[in-house]
Every structure is written in structure tokens, then in C-alpha cells.
Write a structure and sequence with these properties.
homodimer
Chain lengths: ~575, ~575
């Protein structure tokens, strides 16, 4: 016996087809719900819904398992059969986290959750506390970044399906690693999205880069919000996920008195209390709005943290000598970087030339631990024409400087897979849209996008080609090679120092102070008893050594201390400990 | 010498045509500003702007005077020449206000601001504290409600133009009356809107009932917001307006970190402090979101008050015996009315059948003085098929009950012109769109709208016909007639009691308690030492008299007190004072 429940307010009649037999469903109440009880259905049963006169069944919008992909039948999955062994695990607080973003398809050669388990010891050795998985919800085709998910309650079958995700989380927890999952609630992928057959999941009155916006405020929005909240709760409850990364929340259009994010925060808090677990919500936001990470009690939206793009852009444009176009044009000086480090938002109510409007609001009342900082993430690499990494763009010396500033920053630091050893593999944009027309549009669109920036079309990897996906896989053989090993040790040491030094984990009260000289191109980031000195000039320079200070880490053996001076070769960084603030760490 | 400044980012070249001569304008900076200094221009000069190759000049989007209407040239107006005599006036606080909404075109036979001045003594005698003018910004044609304004910085010429508004405000202040002005920032009227020639005032990515939304968050939005904020400040600074009523703020689409309304609230607060005046912002909102009237410091939007539609709908549907469709279908019981009185929002996070979604959020932490209550306003009358008033719809007895509940409510009460004497004139929807196609569309649209509710097309007054406008004018001869005089005395007495009774002016802590019996159709609203007892049954009924209570006001001479009981005929209301809460008033 299995009870099927379905929200399909658009339908005049509904049947469920289970094990090849059709069972009519009964309308329950007047708000679009249908149900049926089917005697010989249960875990493993394949099923789909027949709406009105449609000849073939559609997959369940809330399907837990799509073994045949986005167009195939759904399969009943026993959410509670997995034998968890992680009862003793407790996720560390976000304030002390070192996050590591990875993409299951390219993290290993096999590209599965099970093969990723084998690499967890590497992450533990590096000092990582939180693994962040790029989206694993079922999307069209074999490979892709995951942001085109359509069956949002099921795990992409090529990654191993639902049980594989549980094995991965269980294994991570066994090794003391928390797991954050990236979820996409601002749109559905363009191929295999059947939700529109069932109900008003999208509305036309607001446009987003992907078409009509998700319906968070119109008729039926209470059920659409339920759909997404239930999805979030499912990952955290049934898959033991420790938190979610919410993709591009600025694309949410919601004038409701209770904003969708606030509802999600409240329900997550309630579940955390019920389960006695630490659950976090991390938003990607382009709004520079501190309200996002302000508690709900003060009419904030209650997110635990958000990604800090201003820090990334400020740091990247300082490191990269070429003048960059697009959103990078709003950054480029050490003053921008200093403001990002000290005040989080560079655009905090000032005019943005790129946006041609005033942007943002000061975040100076919010702990800097509510912001995630990085010099690499899937977008910042993958949205470059050829997916080249920071070490490819600015060289190893500057990549080390970047790592030092990220890992000693007042924010929650995040690395992207392979960054720790300066992997040679790129991370390119790839997608496997099964619809040939959509695939052609994506391939062509990618070329046109970069042609506008002067890239010859033939230099742009074809996103829909399997080689592009394969090329983006990490080559783990590199890890043992000397140049890579040095980079890996650099990251490991930086993480070790951060985790062992109280003043580096201090988000509130803020202790980040930056001094710099734009002409001489040096910058010093002071965080209590720790100082990070960077030389970004083209020649070596000597800077006065803070009194009673000792060298903790140096990115180059050529960094010298003598006569109360520290001499830094070009593109090097030194981490110093001073005793002036006794007891500060 | 006059300096012309213009924001026209779309233009490649701009000239100003002043006194018939064309003067080229110079681009200033890179953000779309142009300027020119013209020697022989000054107050009284007619001018317009020539954009690129356009053969004729367009009026100034910020024109202070459109003597020839929306399509004509602008005229330079000396904003500071008027000789104000209102220095001693200080607006009373909103918490103690009795608001009176009026429409200049129909308030008097002549339909001008100057003729309206002659009626101010009537309002003073009634006990009004705040006059609220429906929009006076220049709109297409001679007559209209004013919500189709396009030259938002100028006063509609048929009302008397800019100086007439100053004479009106000055006269009102001389008589101790504050003036609220209705302003429309959510759209421009469909005829005569030239702003789109100049810059991105509207955007296509969000749709409203009037088309593209006002651009509050896209490129150029900093200037569009400046345009509206400057408009608001102009009325309050140069016209001595004491506050603004903001039309339909739910139509604002703004995801900016600083919401447009918050910016407007901040700038209004700053101006109030600078001028040492009390300035208020009152929003019309369909969001049931207490954040609107929450202080900015707590991430609220800082409005001083908002209109309370739930109270209106709850009261109207209880008084009107016929089952109503549309948004009224969400109301209709005494329980709805009791919740509206005690908790402000009936839809406070519960499911609305009409909206087919969950709506609103509790407002129980917000003072009820932040809500304006009414049984009539321009919309609630004029949006009925034939513009009939509450006294026409439910009879005089129930209109008296409504007045008692409004004027003894915990909210800020508001009357609509003529309500105080149960005027026989309707307030119908009228407009004078000079564009024949638009006029036909409006006439036809109105008929179709009400056909859907079963109204024969010939019964719907033609909005574009002058008779419809004339029919809606108040007939002041009625005021002296006996039936009307009784209604006027009823309102005057209710206002007198409210203003003299402390517990009726108590918004926080809340003291409104309602008891009722749905079957017997009686309702008692208790506000400290004042009780309002209503009998809405079809026959008389006796209710126990609260101990030590005296009758303050009775809507009918047939209301009797005997043997610790009060007997109320059908459709009557009594106001009682009890002594149980000694010192409470």
C-alpha cells in the first residue's frame, strides 16, 4: 500500500500510473490536491502522473528518485532505510569553518559520490571543516554544473542516486566533516521541467535571466514555497546535510509580508532545534544587503551567511594586472580591497559605474563571520572564457598571496576543488542538455557572450562537448608533484595557523585593519596579533618590521628579516605574529 | 538668467527651447545630465526640451507649471514668491487626527482649490484635523480622479495651478487644519507621459496593472528615486504640505538594499527636523505587512501609517446584507470584524480564498495608530459600479453604526467628502483622457469589468462623459436639510466624543476588545471606559447594561435604558461610558 499525494491545481483529472497500471486520483478539498491509495505499490515502484488527456505520465515534481533521468518515470524511494552511523557527529560552527566547494562530476575521474568519499582524507589533512557540494539534484543529461536541476527532490543518477549521497554524507561525518549542499530555488532547468504542467510554479509578471520568476507571491505561492521549504528540510533531515547554499537569492521576487527566505530560515531553525543539530543557510546574493544576514527578530531574513563577491572582485582585480571589463570595472585599487576587508561591502550605498545606479548598504553592523570569502569558486573560474584558475591567470606567487589574504581574512574562507594544489585542470562551463536545440543555443550563446569581450569563437570550449567536462576533472596525480606539493603545504599551513589562532577567527568585534600604498603596491592586513604583509610590486621592497614580531609563514624562501626590516621579493607574502597585543591570541 | 538642468541619459543631443528660441544644452559628466544657462529666461518663461531629432519640444519631466496641460510647454514658476502667513501653524500628531479625504474637482460646484477654501469652516466645525487631497498633479484632460498624473511636479491647471494650492494650504493652516496630499509614484498616467523620452523611468522586467514598473532598482534608478523623493520633498517644503498619502505602494518593485520607501522616509524625517515641522507619510498597501509601518532602525520601512483595508472590508461585509464577490468574499462575519478591530490585520498569515495563497503577517506589535480606518474612501465608493455611498447601499441606520465604529475605533479615522451628511451625490469613476482611443478603451473596459459581475452595460456610467464628473459633485444645499443635518450632527458628536476622550485616542497599549454574537447579530466594541454597542439584527434586542454606565450617544431616539438593560432597535448603535476603569479617560 502506498499513498500518492499530488498538488496539481491546473488539472481537471489526475491518475497515477504505477507498475504499469493506471489508478484514478481523487480531488481533496478545493486547493488543488489529489490523492490515491495503491495496494501493490511501495519502495522500488516506478510511477508517473497522468494529467487530463496527456497520453504519457509525467514524473512526480517531488520525485525522490529518477533512475532514468529527467524525462523518465519516478521511483518510490524509502527515505528511511539507510543505516546511518553518524550519531556522534556535530557540525562545527560556521564562524570557525574552512569551506571547500566541490563538483561531484569533476572532483574525481569517476565523477561519483562514492569515488569522492575516497578523497575525504585529503580534505581532512588539509584542515577543511565543511565540504560544499555543487547541486546534486537531477538535471538533464549526464554532466553539468547542476544549476539546471528539474527534479529537485532526487539525486542525479550519474552521481550515484539518493543512497550514494547518504553514503557520502555519512562518510564525511565519520571523518568529522560537515556537508553543505548547493540548492537552486530561483529557477528550474530548461530541459525536463514538468512542474508547469502541474501548477503555477513560475509567474510571468517578473522576469529573471531564466524567464518567468519562481512564484513566491502570486496565487498558489503558499504551495510553491512549501515545495521549496520541504525540499530544504528534506536534505537536512533525511540526508543529514548540515546546511544549504542558496543559489542567487537576488532573483527571488517576493513582496510577501513574510519573505520566502525568512520562512525558510524559520523552518530551518525549528528543525535544528527539534533535531538538536546545527543547520546553516548560506545565500549567494548580489544585493549587498545586510538585511539578508540580519536576524529575523529585527525584520532581517535570517540567513547565517552570504557569499562576499565584493571581496573577491577587489582581490582579483588587484592581483590581475590586465584591466578587466564587466563587473570588475568597479574595482581595481588597493583602496577597494582595504574597504572590502574592513567593511565587507565596497558598494555600500555608493554609485556603481557598472550597474549605473547606487548599490548596496553598509554591513558594518554585521559580524564578518556572516560572509564567505574566496578567490575561486565555480563561477569565478567557470565563467571565465576558458575556465582558467587563479594560478593560471596571475601565477603561483600571486595565488599564494591570494590564499594568505583569504585564509587570514575576517570572513569564513572557502576554497574551490584543486585550488589547494594549484591544479592544472581548468573548470570550464559544461552542460549536457539532451534537447538538441537547447544544446545548440547554449553552445552558440557561450561563444557570442565572449566574442563581445574580444575572444575568437574557436577559442571557447564547447559547453555541450563531453571533452569540456572531462578536461575539467581534477588530476589527482598532481598532488604528489613538487610544485603542487609546495602549494598544498602553503594552504595546509595557512589553515593550520588560522585554526590555531583565536584572533584570526574573530568576526565580531572586528579586528581587521588594512594599510597600503597604491604606488608602492604593498598592503598589510592586521588582525590583532597577526599581520599579513604583501608585496605586489614588480621589484622587491623592504618594509619596517612591527616591533617584537616573528615570522610565522613566508610564501617564499627569499623573504628576509634584518635590522627591524622585512624584505619581500615581488609577489610574496609574509605572516607575522606580534606580541604587542599580549594575550590576544 | 535661468539655469536649466535636465536628466536625459537616452539623448545624444539636447536643446532647450525658451521663449521661442532654441539653446543647445551641454552634457555634464557621464551620467546623463545636461545644462544650459539662458539669459532672458525667468519666472513666466515658457519652455520645453528638444531631444535629438524630435521636431517639437517635450515638456520638462520636472515642470512646476503646465498652464496648457500635459502636452503643452512648461512654464518657469517662482516657487518662493508666495507670501505665506502660516508660521504659527503646527500640525497635530497623526494619533489624534480625524482625516477627511476630498477631491478638488467634485468637492465644490466650481471644482477649484479656491472654492474649496470656502468650505474649510465646515470641516473645522465638524472637528476634522487633517484634510487629505486626492492627487492634484497635472493629468490629461479637465477632470479625473488624479491617479493618471504625468507632470508630477505641477498642480493641475483646472484646479487653479500652483499658486492656488499654496492659497489652499495657507488657508487651511490659518484655520488649524493640516493638509495631506495624495501622490502617485507607482506609475504615470497613460496620456501625456513623456518621461520615457528622457530616461529609464519605467522598466519592463516587472509588470504592474499599468504596464512596466517604475524603475526603483535598475540602471538609472538612483535618478528615478531622486525624481520621486524630490517630488515628495517639494510638496512638503514649497507647498507646506504636512504629509503625503502614497498610492498603492505594493506596486513598487524594489529589491535594493535600501528600499525606496525607506529612502523617502529618511529624507522626510531629515526635512522635518530641518524645518521643525511634523511631516507624515501614509501608505496605501495591499501587503498586510507590518514592516511598512515599522521604524527604519529595525529594518522597517518607516511609514507613519497605512490604510487598513481589512477593517473596511470586514465592516462593509457585515453591514451589507448581500453576499459580495471579489475581495469581499474573504470577509463577512462578525469574527472577521472583531479580529480587524483587535488585531488590525484579519489576513495575518492565513490562507485567503480570494488570493488563493497565504496572505499577510500579524501586526500585533505595531500601534493601531499606524493604521487609517474608514467605511468610505474614493476607491470604496468609486470602484462600485455606480459609485453609490454607504448610506445608499445599507441605509442611514447602518451608516450611523459604521460611523460610530470608525470614529471610536483604535485606528486613525477617515471620512470621505460628503459622508458626514450622507450626501445623495454618488462618487463615480470619471476620467477625461484626451486620447480618443484611450478614452474609448477606458469606457469599454469599465463596462466589461462590471458585466462580469452581472451589471447591464447601460447601467454603468460612462467614465469619460462630463455628466459623470458633474453628477459626482457634492450638493452643499443638502447640508441644511433635516435628514442630512441629523447625520451631520451624528458625525460631529462622534468626533467630539473621540477628541475629548483619552481612551479613544489610545493606540498603544491597545484597549480594543470586541464581543459579539453572530446569530443574534450584536457586537460590542469596548475601548477602556467607552463601549460601542451595535444591533445589526432585523429586530430590536436588549443587552445587559455594563454596571455604572451612562449613555453618551445614541444613533436613535428609540434606544432605551431600563432595569440594567439597554434596548436597541434594528440598525442602531449606542455609545456608553462606564466608570469601572476610573481615571481611564
Amino acid at each position: 500500500m502506498h499513498r500518492f499525494d499530488l498538488w496539481a491545481p491546473f488539472a481537471k483529472s489526475v491518475a497515477v500510473k504505477a507498475n504499469g497500471t493506471t489508478f484514478p486520483m481523487t480531488r481533496v478539498g478545493e486547493r488543488g490536491w489529489w490523492h490515491a491509495e495503491v495496494a501493490h505499490a511501495g519502495a522500488g515502484t516506478d510511477y508517473g502522473y497522468l494529467l487530463d488527456d496527456a497520453p504519457t505520465p509525467y514524473p512526480d515534481p517531488r520525485s525522490h528518485w529518477q533512475p532514468e533521468g529527467v524525462h523518465g518515470l519516478s521511483r518510490i524511494y524509502d527515505q528511511h532505510a539507510y543505516a546511518w552511523t553518524d550519531a556522534k557527529f556535530h557540525a562545527p560552527p560556521l564562524a570557525s569553518a574552512i569551506v571547500y566547494e566541490l563538483h561531484i562530476g569533476t572532483f574525481t575521474t569517476q565523477g561519483t559520490l562514492d569515488s569522492a568519499i575516497e578523497k575525504l582524507d585529503h580534505l581532512v589533512g588539509l584542515g577543511i571543516t565543511h565540504v560544499e557540494l555543487m547541486p546534486v539534484a537531477t538535471f538533464s543529461g549526464e554532466f553539468g554544473w547542476g544549476y539546471d536541476g528539474v527534479a529537485l527532490f532526487s539525486v542525479h543518477e550519474p552521481y550515484g542516486g539518493p543512497d550514494a549521497l547518504k553514503r557520502f554524507v555519512n562518510a564525511a561525518h565519520d571523518k568529522g566533516l560537515a556537508v553543505i549542499l548547493d540548492v537552486v530555488y530561483n529557477h528550474f532547468g530548461p530541459v525536463g521541467n514538468y512542474t508547469g504542467k502541474f501548477g503555477p510554479y513560475l509567474i510571468d509578471s517578473h522576469k529573471t535571466p531564466w524567464g518567468g520568476a519562481v512564484n513566491l507571491e502570486g496565487a498558489g505561492s503558499h504551495e510553491v514555497r512549501r515545495f521549496f521549504c520541504d525540499n530544504a528540510l528534506m536534505w537536512m533531515r533525511d540526508y543529514h546535510i548540515d546546511g544549504l547554499r542558496l543559489d542567487a537569492v537576488h532573483a527571488f521576487m517576493d513582496r510577501s509580508a513574510s519573505h520566502f527566505l525568512e520562512q525558510l530560515a524559520m523552518e530551518t531553525e525549528t528543525m535544528a532545534a527539534t533535531l538538536s543539530r546545527r543547520l546553516v543557510l548560506i545565500a549567494e546574493s548580489d544585493l549587498n544587503d545586510p538585511r539578508l544576514v540580519t536576524p529575523r527578530e529585527a525584520f532581517g531574513l535570517g540567513m547565517n551567511a552570504q557569499w562576499s563577491d565584493d571581496f573577491h572582485h577587489a582581490l582579483f582585480t588587484v592581483l590581475n594586472r590586465e584591466k578587466e571589463a564587466g563587473y570588475y570595472s568597479d574595482f581595481g585599487t588597493l583602496a577597494h580591497l582595504a574597504k572590502a576587508i574592513e567593511q565587507t561591502f565596497v558598494y555600500d550605498g555608493i554609485y556603481s559605474n557598472y550597474r549605473r545606479r547606487v548599490h548596496g548598504r553598509p554591513a558594518t553592523n554585521v559580524s564578518q563571520h556572516r560572509f564567505v570569502a574566496f578567490i575561486q569558486n565555480h563561477d569565478q573560474i567557470g565563467n571565465r572564457a576558458t575556465g582558467d584558475r587563479i594560478s593560471h591567470v596571475v601565477g603561483l606567487g600571486r595565488a599564494k598571496v591570494a590564499a594568505a589574504l583569504v585564509l587570514a581574512s575576517p570572513f569564513v574562507p572557502m576554497l574551490f576543488q584543486g585550488e589547494e594544489w594549484a591544479a592544472t585542470s581548468p573548470f570550464q562551463y559544461f552542460a549536457n542538455h539532451e534537447d538538441p536545440e537547447m544544446a545548440r543555443a547554449v553552445s552558440e550563446g557561450r561563444k557570442l557572450e565572449f566574442e563581445a569581450f574580444g575572444w575568437p569563437p574557436e577559442s571557447i570550449p564547447d559547453p555541450e562537448a563531453r571533452e569540456t567536462f572531462v578536461r575539467s576533472k581534477l588530476n589527482w596525480n598532481e598532488v604528489g608533484q613538487s610544485e603542487h606539493a609546495e602549494m598544498l603545504a602553503w594552504h595546509r599551513n595557512l589553515i593550520r595557523v588560522r585554526r590555531a589562532t583565536a584572533c584570526l577567527n574573530n568576526g565580531e568585534p572586528r579586528n581587521a585593519r588594512v594599510s597600503y600604498n597604491q604606488q608602492a603596491m604593498w598592503l598589510s592586513m592586521d588582525r590583532g596579533s597577526i599581520a599579513v604583509l604583501c608585496n605586489l610590486a614588480e621589484s622587491e621592497q623592504s618594509l619596517p618590521l612591527p616591533s617584537s614580531s616573528e615570522l610565522v609563514l613566508a610564501s617564499s624562501n627569499d623573504i628576509r628579516i634584518e635590522d627591524a626590516k622585512i624584505t619581500l621579493p615581488p609577489d610574496t607574502v609574509a605572516i607575522l605574529r606580534t606580541n604587542r597585543a599580549a594575550g590576544d591570541d
